[in-house]
Design goal:
16% strand; 352 residues; binds pyridoxal-5'-phosphate
Length: 352
């Protein structure tokens, strides 16, 4: 029988939470579909698409739209088939076999997978009360000769933001390439490092259209870096990695900053409702759980038995995620939040 090699033999496919007819608060997507006027425009443009031709390998129009929206130069932007793809390209391009990469756990699970497939050595550092401690992480990176440090900010699954002064200090204190995953940074205004790409020779920032922008179905992610690094990344990726429909849709959406700002406001209001509701329940059942301070579009709950709670919620029709030792609940529509909060409260009442 054909033998799988060790690196692939140990991997398991990503399994999203299953649940037919459930309300889905498990994947941190936006609960808002794209505005009708954008969908109409997209439908109209599709009829003119050159379907038999490869898409633009540099996705230039898309990268320009992204660059305008986020105040960077298009030459610093590389588009990917979701930032998941870019994570794996970055690992395969910037890490040599046997070199050490570091994560600060708990964090996004794709980092460990990307590093394993690139045959890197994984240094899994810890947080202290779910926060990154810059001095500790920097010291560990230097001590272990880390070549690539990757972390999300705000962090998935903790929802916690590391202040930008601290992130800067971390990038400056290590020799490693720092991959700063800002998938949730739209929700934490004024804390991004995207405006500072040229101040660092070892920084790649990841952004995605899957969260605040509300385009998870299209698979659109971006890597931002100084010219030298973005050029290297462009050379390492596969040429036609972003399909023509996604390029088109992404350009339409990113050019509508007005609509994006409005959607963002709606999502932030939902987070506020979710967190306030959770805090109310927490006060009614003291000592049972706490909510970490959220700078993202989800709430992270610290509690004794997150797995059991996740199962109990699923049995009552609410899908949330149990990851990194936390219960992670995506901000949904007001109705979804209310239903979740009602069931969550009932579970604690029943366990009294
Ligand atoms: C959701 C998420 C992504 C997004 O990945 P895409 O492939 O762009 O959908 C990246 N990083 C983190 C930390 C995430 O939570």
């Amino acid at each position: 029988m054909y033998a799988l090699n060790d690196k692939i033999g140990a991997l398991r496919a990503y399994t999203p939470v299953k649940g037919e007819g459930c309300i889905r608060l498990d994947a941190n997507e936006s609960f808002l579909n794209l505005p009708r006027e954008i969908l109409k425009e997209l439908a109209a443009s599709l009829s003119g698409l050159a379907c038999s031709r490869y898409p633009d390998p540099g996705a230039e129009t898309l990268c320009q739209a992204f660059a305008r929206r986020y105040g960077v130069e298009a030459e610093n932007v590389v588009a990917g088939n979701g930032s998941d793809e870019l994570i794996s390209v970055i690992f395969s391009a910037f890490l040599m076999k046997g070199e050490t990469f570091a994560t600060v756990e708990p964090d996004f699970s794709m980092y460990a997978q990307g590093g394993a497939l690139a045959e890197g050595r994984h240094l899994a550092l810890g947080k202290g009360d779910y926060q990154i401690h810059v001095d500790q992480v920097a010291a560990a990176c230097q001590k272990h000769g880390v070549r690539l440090l990757i972390f999300s900010n705000p962090c998935n699954p903790t929802s916690i933001l590391l202040k930008k002064e601290e992130v800067r200090r971390l990038v400056q204190s290590v020799e490693a390439l720092v991959v700063l995953d800002e998938a949730y940074m739209d929700f934490a205004s004024g804390q991004s490092l995207v405006g500072e790409l040229d101040n660092f020779d070892n920084l790649i920032i990841l952004r995605t259209c899957s969260k605040a922008v509300g385009m998870a179905a299209f698979r659109l992610g971006f890597a931002l870096a100084n010219r030298r690094l973005s050029g290297a990344l462009r050379a390492a990726k596969s040429p036609y990695n972003v399909n023509a429909v996604s390029q088109l849709a992404g350009s339409l959406v990113l050019n509508r900053g007005d609509l994006l700002d409005k959607a963002l406001e709606t999502i932030l209001a939902s987070r506020k409702q979710l967190v306030a509701g959770l805090q109310e329940i927490s006060a009614a059942f003291p000592g049972n759980f706490r909510i970490l301070p959220s700078a993202a579009n989800f709430a992270a709950i610290v509690t004794e038995n997150p797995g059991g709670l996740q199962q109990a919620l699923l049995a009552r029709g609410v899908a949330v995620r149990h990851t990194g030792g936390l219960l992670r609940v995506t901000a949904g529509t007001p109705e979804e939040n209310q239903l979740f909060l009602k069931i969550f409260r009932e579970l604690w009442e029943e366990s009294r």
